[in-house]
Amino acid sequence: MRLSPKVITGCLSAQNKGACDWGWQGLVAYGCHNCVVVVDPTTIQVLQVLDKHRTSVVKVKWSRENYHHDIGSPYNLRLASADNWGNIIIWDVAQGEAKIEFSDGTKPILALEWLSWQDASHDLLVALHPPYSVILWNADTGIKLWKKSYTESFISFALDPFCVKNMAILGQDCIVFIDDFSITKTPSSNGKKFYISSPSSSGSSKSDTPVGSLERKPSSSRNLAKKMTKILVGEGKQKEDENIALNECIQLLYLRSCRHHLVLVYSREILILDLEINQTVGIIPAERTGSPFMEILPMQQRDVLYCLHENGSITCRVRRKTNVRASPPPEGTGAFDDSGQTSSMDVMYDLRCQSDSIRMTRHCRVSGVMYSPVSESRLAIVLSDSRVIFWDLQTIDFQVDPRHPKSPLYTPGNFVDTGEVTVKHPRLALCDMIGQSPVLSPDNDSALKGHGVVLRFLMTGLLNGINANISVIRMCPALTTKNWNIYEPLLAVGSQLGTVQIINVGTGQIDREYSVHTGVVRGIEWASLKSFMSYSYPKPTGSNLVKNEMLLVDIISGKVTPVRTQKDQESPIEMLRISHLKQYFIVAFKDKALELWDIKTMTMLRELGKSMPFPTALEWSPSLRHLKKKLQVQPDLVTQQQPQGIGSSGTSGGSSGTSSASTGTSSGNTMTSSSGASSNTGTSGISSGTSSLMSGSLVGSKSTEGDESGTMETSSNKSTLSESTVTSTTTTTTSSDEITTKKISVREHFVYTDNDGNLYHFLVEGSSFTDGSKINPESGMGTITWLAWKGDYLTFGDADGQLCLWDLKAKTSRVISTHRGWIKKVRFAPGRGNYKCLILYNEGVDIWDIVDNKLSLVSCIKSPKEICKVVDAEWSGSDRPVLATVDGCIHMLDISLKISSSPVEERELPDDVWSPYLLTPKATFLMKYLLQNQPWYDKYRLELEDMRTEDKDVQKQVNKNISLINQDVKVYLSSKITIAERCLITARLFGDESEIKFWTVALYYMRSGRHLHMSKSSSSVFAGPETGDLFIPATPSYKEAHDLVDLSETSDGKIPAWKTHKDKPLEKCYDFLCDNETYKKYQIDRVNLHDSKRVTYEHTKKCAETYMMLGESDKAVHLLLETDPENDGYYTDCLRSCLVASIRSSGASQSTIKLVATNLIANGKLMEGVQLLCLIDKGIDACRYLQTYGVWEPAVWLAKSTLSYTECCEVLKRWVEHLSSTQVNQKSQAVLVLISLGYFIKVIEMLYGMRQFNRAACFIEAAQEFDLLEETEENNSLIEAVFLEYARQLSNLGHRQAAEYYCEKAGKKGQQLLKEVQILFS
After folding, report:
1. 1214-1244 pLDDT, tens per residue?
2. Do the Cβ atoms of 115 and 134 come closer than 8 Å?
3. How is residue 620 annotated by DSSP?
4. Can you tell me the distance from the alpha carbon of 9 to that of 394, in angstroms, rounded to the nearest whole number?
5. CA gap 831, 973 in Å, rounded
6. Residue 282: which of 325, 341, 340, 221 has the closest Cα?
7. Please, is 1163 exposed, middle or buried when counting C-beta atoms within 10 Å of its C-beta (0-12, 13-18, 19+)?
8. Minimal CA–CA distance to 1203: which of 1111, 1100, 1089, 1117?
9. Type and span of the H or E element at 689
10. Strand 584-589 vs strand 573-578: parallel, antiparallel, or unpaired?
11. Cis ω on the peptide bond leading into residue 864 (within 30° of 0)?
């Protein structure tokens, strides 16, 4: 049993709202008061709690994994958290350590994001510091790279996922757009401010408000576009009488599925803005009777929105997909039609499913929501009452009904045909569950066999924390040599709501929970290892009388036995104390005589007389001498019943009384000590009468020590009779124990103090009760508040903070002043010879140790400076103090009271956790390379074998983790799938963002290229310009309304359908990486949508210019002629329309127009010149000019939308050079662009230059598998060099077979390395 330092958290504070994140690493993190809790969503268990913040955590962000991993840059669990005082801490979660801490100011951080665009550094963190500063931090060093302060107060910001330069910041009454965000220098401009018209205000006519407003009146879809006018108002301040809606905006974010879309979230509606036209293109209203929106999560793999509502439910909304058009739609129809009828062109999301709502109470509110970025189909909701609820999005087979108003959803239909059995693709992600728009040829059989599905949410996990404010804690009886095989380190936690939770402090998990009391739980005592007693009473009224509740709870059966049921209104219970042998218990009251009870029969043995003073502190003696004498009479039971305590060096016996106990009262015999100063020592002068009392009843005998051997860790003053002498309801009691219990009745004694400090001693045996003696108060001590007794030491704590230690054997006493006020509790640590004691004050905790009969301070912690106010304290082990704090958390600390977290590998977790991030780097990469590809084996194996002796631990680690992989995934990996697919699935298992993107794009273009002719002459593996780009057949009319299609069916009964046609296109989130045909269709869709939204002259002009560049001359002329005669640009637009309409490809006019265009560009009118060049089909020249002037993205847009494949390649190759430059440093993006162009050799060159040997080797073999790469004299040396370096990597990892295989493929140098490998492994 390993008790590692940890924090067990409870309810959340209001400041923790929104402080949660689900990382690519596959783990969930959320803020709980000052702590950050890390949870494994698969096994639903807490892996780590990070505790260093001194105020509430307000932001939590996992680092991104968008970079190549190797031994130099291994997988690690890095997390950033920010608190209410502006401190940002970067954590190493696996080790539970804070790597660095930094801050700027003392105000709460408003927003936090990791940058992941460039390849140079993975440590850049952007933070929004109130009221108006954006700071770029180096999270590795804590250095501030730059700070930009603005003039507006900000609320949050969003980074554009498609463009590294763009950033939107939400202010109190405006949005600020930054278009020069850079990691190398501070943004120079103050950004462009836009003000927003209230969507709830009544809009006026178009002529009255050219800037427009948004109406929400009921209207038909035909005129809805007229109502949804421009919402982003330019630089000028808004009119005073216009309502500003931004103060009601609760979230601002970019869509991750398509470029140029910004989302504004209000409580009753979601606005989707197109930033190219600065206008609303879609509204998602909340249902009339539905719960308001709280937060929106946009997905990337599919155009899906998850919406969190105030009632705790989640809705899934899927973008209404349509037929992509190759030509402009007729008047009145748009790009987003789902039927042949006229429909609105607005961006629309259909509600597809909704999770169950959660009952909200005063103590339960939604704190945050997060989703898995790897799968995008798993979500988690964090509630303020400590619950974390996990939801999975799942699909159910459904017969498609064409009459249904919503377009049907289809599965993507991935599968593998192994000849005998069809292996379904594991649904690891959202893109494996629902497919895209069909792009199949009309004659393809699989186009007619759609596999329809509907979506649903399924709750897959629930994690509970400590669910209310803690009132009291109590650790279970200690571990002994007799109970070690059944022992669990259980802590009982009483709350102010009347519940008692049983927490396993070894695992940190809540074992059981009992709602047993109607009021605050005032005290808990364990009656055995598996049962406890607790008491409660309501707040006293004027009469100071209450109805006390006392219960005995069996935690195995859950049986609750009421105690003292006949009592009505009486004085409140002050204390409940159970004897060490679990035979008796005492109930002490505030203004009533104490009661002595038999715990077996639950009968009251005696009520002390009214003449006896009421106790202020009470303690049972840990003496075991009388038990030992009893057992000597029955030697056959000694081995079974002998008492045990245990500690760090062996078992501990408590103090034993002698048989010559004095039973009479001895007046005037006192134990005196010199006192006065803060620490005074004196040897008492003790008379013969008192000496007899002390030796007989109080002085502990060490005769029991050393009788048993063994080393364990827990309390020394508990006996194994705790199991055998409890009540008959305890199910763990054996029959022999019960027999023994009946035979043995052992004398026990207890002491208590009164208000004057007098000490009273009593003896109990069976049903007899004997008054012992009275000892006068210790000089200089105030009212005694607590007694603690262990071995020969009796410790007193008083209300003035003084500590008195009686050494009963040496008959000495010492008084020490702690100078910390009222001592609320004193508790000795468990363990033989372990005399550390924990002292609880109002303002913290001390740990003292008794060394050479003297008290010395070991450690201390002060609240609220170092820790939240401490409610109660206990020992969970010989060196593990446990503190319960007012924020509802349990802190299990080390003996220094400083460390409250430990490495994950030291935590005792009930279930094994799959996480490559928790393995050593060597084990992680061995497992990754094994899963990706195994050409050195004849058959794919899910086991690492034949490692060296020194690497056997690594081999065991790898195989254990592989065994934890989902069975469906293992079956699919072992089937006949391509190397690229295997690499993609491995990337998803590892949560490797960079690998997922690389292999998704590579797999798509490899599948596409397989069905085209190889080009031997060109450096591209795709065919030459005569084919254009990758051809996509037209969509059949009968499939236009279908969103998604299943390709599981085969076209001829043998060959899978996907092998007979081009692969499904990449999603729009891949943007410039999509094939040109798909990209162009999407751009035409967009301009048609913009056209339908035209309100102002500027907007119309922009649409006309876009049509001109896309070659849609007729549409451009139509828009130019719409210019109002009163407009200043009327004459110019008329001339431009004439020019566009009359242009032909004659040489003379082309020369003139090209000359004019060149002059315009030279004189600063770049876009005007580019438009003229596009009119005369000189798009390639237009792109070159744009690139020359540094306008890269418009150049790429123009090339992919208008140019032929060859010309487009020329433009994109120049863009690749730009991305690879040291100033931009986006080589990873450049590699993806080269893959999309089919320049596979150039891809391998770049990967080799970036030292990504594993990725390069797998890419070569994957391309060869698709017959897209032939080894020639030109590329042979490059391929051999890649295999050589990969072999060296595998050799360093200790994998001999793999290293030898790649040495064989690496030419002459490979043979040299092969000899080295053989020598190394021999």
Report:
1. 999 999 998 888 999 999 999 999 999 999 9
2. no
3. E
4. 31
5. 52
6. 221
7. exposed
8. 1111
9. helix 688-693
10. antiparallel
11. yes
DSSP calls for 901-949: ---GGGS--SS----GGGS-HHHHHHHHHHHH--TTSSS--SS-----G
- Largest Cα span, the chain: 132
Contacts 24+ apart (CB under 8 A), 1057-1063: 1057/413, 1057/444, 1057/445, 1057/446, 1058/413, 1058/414, 1058/1007, 1060/444, 1061/440, 1061/441, 1061/444, 1061/1011, 1061/1033, 1062/439, 1062/1007, 1062/1008, 1062/1011, 1062/1030, 1062/1031, 1062/1032, 1062/1033, 1063/1004, 1063/1007, 1063/1008
Q: Residue 832 contacts by C-beta under 8 Å, 6 or more apart in sequence?
A: 645, 646, 647, 648, 649, 650, 651, 652, 653, 705, 716
Residue with token string 């798993």: 378
**Gap between the Cα atoms of 465 and 9, Å rounded:** 6
Where does 608-712 show beta strands of DSSP type E?
617-620, 679-683
Q: What is the DSSP string of 1153-1209?
A: HHHHHHHHHHTT-HHHHHHHHHHTT-HHHHHHHHHHTT-HHHHHHHHHHHS-HHHHH
Tell me the per-residue pLDDT of 967-1002, one tens digit each, with 9 for 90 and over.
999 999 999 899 999 999 999 999 999 999 999 999
307-316 per-position pLDDT tens digit: 999 999 999 9
Angle at Cα 477 formed by Cα 476 and Cα 478, nearest 5°?
Answer: 115
Q: Determine the Cα–Cα distance for residues 1067 and 669; give it in Å rounded to an integer.
A: 92
Report the distance separating Cα 1219 and Cα 1192, nearest Å: 10
User: DSSP code of 1052?
Assistant: S
Euclidean distance between the first and final Cα of the chain, in Å? 40
Residue type, 1015: S
Cβ 721 vs Cβ 582: under 8 Å: yes
Residue 43's alpha-carbon distances to 847, 935, 1051, in angstroms, are: 37, 33, 41
Q: Pull the structure tokens for residue 133.
A: 């500063």
CB-CB neighbours of 426 under 10 Å: 19
Q: What type of residue sits at position 902?
A: S
Q: For residue 298, what is the DSSP state? A: E
- Give the whole-angstrom CA distance, residue 1219 versus residue 1239: 16
CA dihedral 287, 290, 292, 295 (to 10 degrees): -80
Query: What's this model's pTM, rounded to 2 decimal places?
Result: 0.85
User: What span, in angstroms and rounded, lies between the C-alpha atoms of 749 and 580?
Assistant: 10
- Cα separation, 153 vs 1169, in Å, equals 40
Model confidence pLDDT, tens digit, residues 131-181: 889 999 999 999 999 999 998 889 999 999 999 899 999 988 889 999 999
Measured on CA atoms in the order 1274, 1279, 1284, 1289, is the torsion positive or negative?
positive
DSSP state of 461: E
Q: What separation in angstroms does the CA of 515 have from each of 345, 518, 539, 1150?
A: 56, 8, 19, 87
Which two three-digit tokens encode residue 67? 């970079």
Question: Please, are residues 979 and 970 in contact by the beta-carbon 8 Å criterion?
Answer: no
Mean pLDDT over the full length of the chain? 81
The mean pLDDT value for 846-853 works out to 91
pLDDT at 311: 93
* Residue 1145: band (very low, low, confident or very high) from pLDDT cuts 50, 70, 90: low
Beta bridge partners of 656: 701
Distance, CA of 708 to CA of 643 (rounded, Å): 9
Q: What is the DSSP secondary-structure string of 1076-1134?
A: HHHHHHHHHHHHHHHHHT--SHHHHHHHHHHHHHTT-HHHHHHHHTT--TTSTTHHHHH
Is the Cβ–Cβ distance between 928 and 916 less than 8 Å?
yes
List, in order, residues 6 or more apart from 309 with CB less than 8 Å away.
Answer: 286, 290, 291, 292, 293, 294, 315, 357
DSSP type of residue 270 = E
Mean pLDDT calculated for residue range 347-372: 91
Total length of the chain = 1322
For the cut 90, the answer to whether the pLDDT of residue 1150 exceeds it is: no
Residue with tokens 């596409």, as numbered in its chain: 1008
